[in-house]
Amino acid sequence: MLPRALLYEGPGYPYAIEGHGRVHGTLLVAAPGVYGELLGLLDHLEEFLGPGHPRNLYERVVREVELPAPGAAEAGTAGESGESVRAWVYLAATAVTRSLRTGGVLIPEGRWTTGRIPGGS
Question: Among candidates 6, 7, 9, 14, which has minimal Cα distance to 119?
Fold first, then answer.
């Protein structure tokens, strides 16, 4: 879970931005020897061209993320009392963030699920 962030609907995919909430997601851990390749593939997927690039949709930044506490998934309390680790996360780039803050649709509880109807509840 990413603390101090909000999740917004975007064209096609959600966008996380800095904020007073929590965003739930999945932590990927690269197999030994493929870290650089995985990071390159994720950068391509997220349309990250480099720090501060004007055509970025997302910025890749280091943030503390919270892992679920042991047994939390079964109890439905993921992210509570879990360990924190530093990880790369992709936050909306500056221009995208500005647009979302002024007219975006917030995703409730910071949980994006596939199959949602855009703009629907």
Answer: 9
State how far the alpha carbon of 45 is from the alpha carbons of 1, 48, 121, in Å: 21, 8, 27
Q: Which helix (H) or strand (E) holds 90?
A: strand 84-92
Query: 64 pairs with which residues across the strands?
Result: 86
CA distance 48 to 41: 10
Beta bridge mates, 6: 17
pLDDT digits (tens, 9 = 90+) for 74-91: 444 444 557 999 999 999
Nearest-5° angle of CA 95, CA 92, CA 62?
Answer: 130
**0.70 exceeded by pTM:** yes
What is the tens place of the pLDDT at every residue in 36-86? 999 999 999 999 999 999 999 999 999 999 998 776 554 444 445 579 999
